[in-house]
């Protein structure tokens, strides 16, 4: 079951933005517009984490946090507090009542992800870093697709498909949606193979560059991490026929 995050803010635009970031990463999201509503939803729904604004009508975030941390039903739910007013004394007061993390407005998606991963993931540090990288990539994909979608331009529609889906795999083992077969748009299926070729050929912090012949072998035969079944069979077949062109293009840009 997906982790559930309760977002609490009196500004609809802020709730909408955080929702657009979190849902593509696989989180379930519930919304509240003030502290009183947040307390009730936390008691009823038991979210895995609460992202709580401070300045709100009816009941502010500080008062809501006090109630949540004193209630045995909700006292163990992690709370990330958000403010546009700067921290200082506010942060010390928040720590005293049990706030687990802090974000400043405007919220940066990368900072939000780091804070969220540190709190919500019950894993050792290495596992947390792996999840941060994976979900950070997914977040960037979702943001890229969001920027590009809605255009009438066929080119930008294709770009949105690529941004969101080029880490999907033919056998359904990719991400962020786990799409299988031709449910992934064709442009993204093509880009996925080209992206892997480029990644293998270039230097990365964790590996040296790999020559063209060995790269082709990894793509067409597999190496345990990259496997032929990850690729659309038609795209893989076309790659085998035109692989020398990949080498030419790569060499032209060195």
Concise account of the structure shown:
The chain is α/β, with parallel strands linked by helices and 254 residues long. 53% of the residues lie in helices and 9% in strands. The protein has a five-stranded parallel sheet with strand order 2-1-3-4-5, sandwiched between helices.
Describe the structure.
Helix content is 53%, strand content 9%. With 254 residues, the chain is of the alpha/beta class. It has a five-stranded parallel beta sheet with strand order 2-1-3-4-5, with helices on both faces. It is elongated. The N and C termini lie far apart (46 Å).
Mean pLDDT: 85
End-to-end separation? 46 Å
Question: What fold name goes in the CATH topology slot of the largest domain?
Answer: Rossmann fold
Q: What portion of residues is helical?
A: 40-55%
Note poorly predicted spans.
122-126
Which structural class do you get from the secondary structure elements? Answer: alpha/beta
- Shape, please? elongated
Secondary structure: number of strands: 5
Q: What's the gyration radius in Å?
A: 22 Å
Give the SSE string.
EHEHEHEHEHHHHHH
| Biggest β-sheet description | 5 strands, parallel
CATH C-level class of the largest domain is Alpha Beta
Strand content: 5-15%
| CATH architecture designation of the largest domain | 3-Layer(aba) Sandwich
Number of helices: 10
